[in-house]
Design goal:
single chain, mainly alpha, elongated, 133 residues, 5 helices, 0% strand
Length: 133
C-alpha cells in the first residue's frame, strides 16, 4: 500500500464481519474452566488474613510521637534562648548558634552510642513483641 493513500473507509458490514466471526472463535483448553473454579473455591475456603495488632502497636507509636515532639520543642527552645541573648540591633551570628551541634557531630563516639542505643531498643522491642506469653 502506498503510504500517501488514505485507508479505505470502514463500513458496517466490515465491522460486523470482524466482531461476529464464528470461524475464528477461541475455545479454552479442556479442563481450564474446572481448574479456574477449583482455584476460586480454594481461595474462598482459605482463612481470613490476620488483623494488625493495633492495640499492641499504639503505645509504641504514642511514645515515639512524644519523643519526636519533645526533641523538636527542646531544639526550638534552645535556639530561642540563643537568639534572646544578643543586644538589640546587633546581627545574629549563625555560627554561634550551630557551634554546639558541630561539637557533637565531631565526636564519633556520640554517634556510635546513639546508633547502638537505637539498635538495642529496636531489638528489645521486637523481642518483646515476638516472645510467647
Amino acid at each position: 500500500m502506498n503510504p500517501r493513500q488514505p485507508n479505505p473507509p470502514l463500513t458496517h458490514a466490515d465491522v460486523d464481519r470482524a466482531l461476529f466471526a464464528d470461524h475464528d472463535s477461541i475455545l479454552p483448553s479442556s479442563g481450564f474452566a474446572a481448574s479456574v473454579m477449583s482455584a476460586v473455591q480454594a481461595e474462598a475456603a482459605a482463612p481470613a488474613p490476620l488483623a494488625f495488632p493495633w492495640k499492641r502497636a499504639l503505645p509504641g507509636l504514642a511514645v515515639g510521637a512524644v519523643v519526636v515532639v519533645t526533641v523538636i520543642v527542646s531544639v526550638f527552645l534552645g535556639f530561642l534562648r540563643r537568639l534572646h541573648a544578643p543586644v538589640a540591633g546587633s546581627p545574629v551570628d549563625v555560627r554561634e548558634l550551630l557551634t554546639p551541634l558541630a561539637h557533637l557531630a565531631n565526636g564519633g563516639a556520640f554517634w556510635v552510642t546513639v546508633s547502638l542505643a537505637i539498635s538495642g531498643a529496636c531489638l528489645l522491642f521486637c523481642r518483646r513483641l515476638l516472645s510467647p506469653r
